[in-house]
Amino acid sequence: MAITLKIKRSSTASSVPSSLQHGELALNLADRKLYVGKSDNSVRAITTLGPRGATGATGSAAAGATGARGSTGATGSVGPTGPPGPTGPPG
């Protein structure tokens, strides 16, 4: 059975949690700061998350595309003509 862990969070810039229990985490999404509750009931920012990296370039359509089709080979010679068929009944 999976356990869902939810961290307290805020999207308000410069918002710092007023209180956290010892070891409890909180995240400010606007400032990208992670906070932890300390044993003396204070709150401390433990890290500022770096900026999100840029999205990488999309590869061109030619990258990894199928190569050009080769030329068609020569047509073989025509075989000999077969013998004539039987003559049909008179009309």
Would you kindly provide a brief summary of this structure?
The protein contains no helices and 4 strands.
Descriptive terms for the model:
91 residues, mainly beta
Helix and strand succession? EEEE
Distance between the termini: 91 Å
Strand order in the sheet with the most strands:
1-2-3-4
Beta-strand residue fraction: 15-25%
Radius of gyration: 39 Å
Largest sheet: 4 strands, mixed
Q: How many individual helices?
A: 0
Helicity level: under 10%
Strand segment count: 4
Poorly predicted ranges? none
Alpha-beta content class: mainly beta
What does this structure look like?
This protein is 0% helix and 20% strand. It contains no helices and four strands. It has a four-stranded mixed sheet with strand order 1-2-3-4, with no helix packed on it. It is rod-shaped. It starts with 7 loop residues before the first strand and ends in a 43-residue tail after the last strand. The model has no long low-confidence stretch (mean pLDDT 83).
What topology does this entry show?
Layout: E1 8-10, E2 25-28, E3 33-37, E4 43-48
Parallel strand pairs: 1-2
Antiparallel strand pairs: 2-3, 3-4
